[in-house]
Amino acid sequence: MYLKKIELHGFKSFADKVNIEFQPGITGIVGPNGCGKSNISDAVRWVLGEQSVKSLRGSNMADVIFAGSQDRRAQNLAEVTLIFDNSDRMLNYDYNEVEITRRLYRQGNEAEYLLNRQQCRLKDITDLLLDTGLGRDSLSIISQGNISNFADSRPEERRAIFEEAAGVSKYKKRKIEAIRKLERTTDNLNRIKDIVYELEKQIAPLKKQKEKAEVFLTLKEKLTSIEVNVLVHEVSELKHQLDTLSLQLKDLNERHSSLDAEIFLKESADDEIKKKMFVLDNEINSLQSQLLESMSEVSRLETSKIEVDQKRKHALQSQNSDDIKKKLDNLKAILTDLIEEYNDRVERLKTTEKSLEDLSQEQTVLTSKINHKHQSINDLNQEITKNKNRQEILVDLVENKSNYHHGVKAIMELAHDNPDIIGVFGDLLENDSKYDLAVSVALGSALQFIVTKDNLQARLAIKFLKDNKAGRATFLPLADMEPRSLREEHAILCPALEGYLGVLSDFVSSSKNIDNVILNQLGNVILADDIDHAYEISKATYARYKVVTLDGNIVNVGGSLTGGTVNRQQSSILQKRELEKVKEKLDELEQKLVREKNELLKLENDAKELAHTLLQKQMSYAKLEVVVQGKKEELVVAKGEYESLSHQSVELDEFKSGKIDNQLVLQLNEAIKHRDELTEKIKSKRELRMSYVNENEQLESKLKDLRRMLKDIQGQINEKAILSTKYEGSLNNYLSRLSNEYSMTYEYASENYHDEVDIEFARGEVATLRNEIVALGHVNIDAIEEYKEVSSRYENMNSQRLDLIQAQDKIVQAIDEMDQIMIEKFSTTFEKINKEFNNVFRELFGGGRAQIKYTDPDNILETGIDIDVQPPGKAVSNITLFSGGEKALIAISCLFAILKVRPVPMCILDEVEAALDMANVERFAKFLREFSKQTQFIVVTHREGTMEECDLLYGATMQQKGVTKLVSVKLEEAIDFSNENRKGGI
Ligand SMILES: Nc1ncnc2c1ncn2[C@@H]1O[C@H](COP(=O)(O)OP(=O)(O)OP(=O)(O)O)[C@@H](O)[C@H]1O
């Protein structure tokens, strides 16, 4: 490998593009001072990656770009390309020619590297050159400054050149990388150790919590299986009992209805009989009047017969026709007056009869009204009884708290003597009735939570329950209750949502000053108008809150929905409200009953008055009848007299002829027959009436029995209804426990939990398990998952820790190995160079001896390099004590010794022999020649001796001021170039 060509453009004094071609062997570059020779070695160093501005003899990287001259403008880009012949593939790059380019733009100070015209990184170039002997820090570019510095530099600084020669740079670089990696690994390890330590601290308590949670879950599972079985058993028992009660009630109600119907029919039949008796009485009365008349007719006819007989006797003895005619005229006048009076009285009798009929009709209407009133009062009494029964049940539920859990009841009995037990939460709440359903469903079982003054009271109460085996209860210690509310963003958002009515706690109050408890239980429960809006509100708030509706539906936290019919038996609020309503209803019914009774009283008074008026009317009718009868009798008498007299006159004639006697006998017979018929009729009617009386008595007695039976059945219905309500209460209590504590429906539970259990034993088991769960105290269920996570993280981190420790060990081992290699390589190369140094020195100095030595032999990796030399005839001395020329010669000796041990493909020597005398220049040139077999030399020189050994010579000129140009020259021209320099420079 050798450098074939350098292309420079815009680099320092190379304003124009300049191509310098080289060949293996020695190429000399000559020229006057300042014409740009050293800029060539700068260009090579720059392309090989030099980053030090000082090494490039500038103060800023942009100083390498052509800065302009008297006649030329400054340039914006510096570009240098080195073209190597790589046919021997010394560079690990599969091309015969390798071009390495570096560019720098003035704008933005941007640098670019290219490898065979392809953009690349500086690292790519450095890696390519690694171990080739080329590079910014290698021996490939040696300046006059390097040579003089070599002698004067500190032993530690001098070491670098030997390291480069020993080829340990790449190991040093790798070691630095490994140390950095070790530092990073150590940092990571420390960080992970901290984490592992933290996790170890967490893991032990978490493990305890996890184990406790597992025990809890096992107990809970066992409890669930047993208690659900118990609940299923209780529910099924109650259902069975309720079914039986329902059948019994159905039967009783049917019997009640049929008795009712029977009573109604019997009462109707009784009324019918009474009506018939009334009609029959009237008929009998009428027949009796007719009988009286008939009897008087018979009597009259018999008297007439006697009279006729006498008259006939008398008439036949003494009657005078003229007297009779006179008497007849008188009687006619009297008769006319009597007829008028009689007609008048009859008319008045008819009027009275009419008003009697009206009154009687009025009496019928009144009687019907009174019957209606009785019926209505009867109905009211029944309804009052029904409501009183319900009231009794509700009073039992609300005031005696019979629907409360055993534990709650036990504590509330204590509460009379303890003001610190404030009360059952549901009983302490006040709200408008339209929010009853929402509050009831929102609180659910919390309605029976007990509010205590503080935590101590709650714990005392729990101890009491435990000591007395009095059941369980949940407590809300007022002092510890944290108010809950909507998050600020939701409090702003919700009022804008359709159907949002507010937070439920705003609709509830209490006279007991328990606002904290209300806010704790209801402060984050949203009230919505219906289920659709509730669902939307829940969605908008990411199902973070419970949303309840006015009709008792719920969208739970997390988005599940609960709804349907609300069980009123479970809510003390709804029971209280129902009790109020039943009481109001009872007041209303009782007031109505009083009104009805008053109205009945009035109707009965009216009936009495009417009866009185009717009696008066009947009396006046009877009197009038007597008068009419009197008048009639008078008329009859007068008529009789008149007729009798006129008859007498006719009779007289007829007596004489015997006709009257026959007629009277016929009439009398007729009258007797009529009287007997009437008597017969009356007799049969009376018998009929008697049969009605009997029938009526039987009906009345039957009705009495039926009413007694009805009352008895009503009593049974009431008893069964109370029992049924109690069972329903217990049933609902069990169902709500299934639902609230185990989230199961009865159907689901009975399908999945139908073990045959000894129920008494199971109840005992439930109590024991519950006590065991309580004894566990606070349980953190999340601990199971947290422990899993933390232990998995711990495992992970611990394994990372072990990996890192392993990695750390490997890196340390690698560093040790690299150290061993470096020591080995460095000391081997050092020994070789030391040997060659003595040889080269002796040749250059013509005798004497020289050696290099470690300043710290115990630390080969860091030791400085000292040089001891003894030129011929002089004492052994340190290099620093020699003259400039001697120092340069010693440095050159060392350079050639190194090149011998570690040849480089190319070496640029920039006026390194400037300080040597002519004889030494010649020796130097001889060495160049000798080494040029293995190394390509490019020498910048002013010395003829060196020029003579060059295979190719270039002369640097500045024909245009400030711009370097290169021309190929022959030896003589080169000497001229140098002489020009000596004569006066540029
Ligand atoms: N950025 C730049 N733009 C233009 N010219 C530059 C720039 N940097 C350096 N130069 C010029 O380069 C010249 C120095 O070149 P260099 O040091 O290579 O000379 P030389 O031939 O090695 O001299 P000597 O024989 O004295 O060592 C100076 O004239 C300097 O003005």
Quick synopsis:
With about 1000 residues, the protein is α+β, with helices and mostly antiparallel strands. About 65% of the residues lie in helices and about 10% in strands.
Name a few traits of the molecule.
25 strands, binds adenosine-5'-triphosphate, Taq DNA Polymerase, Chain T, domain 4, alpha+beta, rod-shaped, Rossmann fold, about 1000 residues
Description:
The longest helix has 150 residues. The protein is built from 22 helices and 25 strands. A six-stranded antiparallel sheet has the order 2-1-4-5-6-7. A hairpin with an 8-residue loop joins strand 1 and strand 2. Helix 4 packs across helix 18. With 986 residues, the protein is of the alpha+beta class. The two termini are 35 Å apart. The C terminus is likely disordered. Among the domains are: 213 residues, P-loop containing nucleotide triphosphate hydrolases (Rossmann fold); 72 residues; 166 residues, Taq DNA Polymerase, Chain T, domain 4, CATH 1.20.1060. InterPro entries: P-loop_NTPase, RecF/RecN/SMC_N, SMC, SMC_hinge, SMC_hinge_sf, SMC_prok. Required for chromosome condensation and partitioning. It is found in: Cytoplasm. This is Chromosome partition protein Smc. It comes from Faecalibacillus intestinalis.
Structural class label: alpha+beta
> Which strand order do you get reading across the main beta sheet?
2-1-4-5-6-7
Strand content: 5-15%
For this structure, the CATH topology of the domain at 2-140 and 911-984 is: Rossmann fold
Calculate the mean pLDDT score and round it. 89
Binding site for ATP: 32-39
Coiled coil: 235-262, 321-362, 572-613, 668-716
Pfam family, one: SMC_N
Keywords: ATP-binding, Coiled coil, Cytoplasm, DNA-binding, Nucleotide-binding
